[in-house]
# Entry
Amino acid sequence: MAEIDWARVGAESVELFKSLLRIETVNPPGNERPAAELIAGVLAREGIEHQLVERAPTRTSVVARLRGNGKRAPLLLNGHLDVVPVDRDKWRHDPFGAEEHDGCIWGRGAIDMKNMVAMGLMTLVLLKRTGAALERDVIFAGVADEEAGSREGALYLVEEHPELVRAEYVLNEVGGHTLHMGKRRFYPVQVAEKGICWFELIAEGSPGHGSMPRPDNAVVRLARAIERLGATRLPQKNLPVVEGFLRTLAAGAPFPQNKVMPLLLEPRLAGHLLGLMEKKDVDRAIGINAMLRNTTSPTVLSAGKKVNVIPSEARAQIDGRVLPGTAIADFLREVQAVVGDDVRINVLDRHDGTTFGTDTPLYEKIRSTLARHDPDGVAVPYMIPGFTDSFAYARLGATCYGFSPVKLGPELNFTGMYHGHDERIPKDGYLWGQRVLFELVRDFTAAT
# Structure
């Protein structure tokens, strides 16, 4: 295999990453085609087999493949091209400028997840350039629509073009970032994720003139239900992966965190401890809370058309996240018990959570690759409270891990930047991640 000039490759990877950040693929509406076409141009120049696939105009995904000798089943590198909306006036720098400030590359998608798109594409390019002998096909998929449920992207590929993305293993987002706990460094590897149950709460009442308040006002009924939902933690359920994650972090944490974190697994104490944590480190507190139970977040409200008319109906859309192994019907019973019978529930979309085992050659290769690049770092399996495209690929039988490596300093909060203002990634941390990902894929797929 040819030697790699990492200074030159790193600069090339950064420029590719910045080019992707400058393309506004905000979903809705998505319009991922320009990003997919940019990637297709790179693949065409490198002579890599690829194709553009879309379910609807402009909702474009790109899939590429380097072929191995077929001794083992493929590895898929996945990245979604769409990003969530931004409040431009809340950002310190242009969210689509890909500017460098304070050692970081700034932009919507820097963490979620155009970094992985660029690193995965560059990994494929490097395997091709170096003439790597592969025993597995390596597939790259840059997909549309993950931020809205994956229907126009990964789900469409799985349901209509499974031959393009069928793989034994998938590397995806939300894992491989540095998590500092005292003087220890951990690298969470996502092996589980929650499912979704997006639903509406609907309150009904008698319409009337706004000058005469009514006791059955639908808006007031809905507001009461939302207030109850926001003030209540649903029942705690400790999954093995979450328990293992918290105990591993506690073992490396300084006092008093090393004593407090295991107590979060005690339902009778967890609520009080989380309340105290929220006053000191709200991002960490809400992240742990979301791993311990099903959760709900009201996000969209609608009622009425005129200020002096009491409406007959009020609706709230709720983002429900459901632990792997919990039936949607059980989750809805938990919600109904909180909001009461004054409102009814209408499910908008749903899918189950997923959990993947760690007793695999790929997980071991992730662990050993991280150990080589950060000997003092510790890989630890964990569950994310959201979902990724992995739930779609799991339907084809793939084992999916969230591993998009980036080295972060303690001053940067990974989860706080997801969907937040001032999303950014350290340039040096990105370059570290590019090399880690390439070496992991090269070594895991190498012909023996």
Remarks:
- The chain has two domains: 6-191+356-445, 193-351.
- Residues 6-191+356-445 form a domain with the Aminopeptidase fold (CATH 3.40.630.10).
- The longest helix spans residues 427-445.
- The two ends are 13 Å apart (CA to CA).
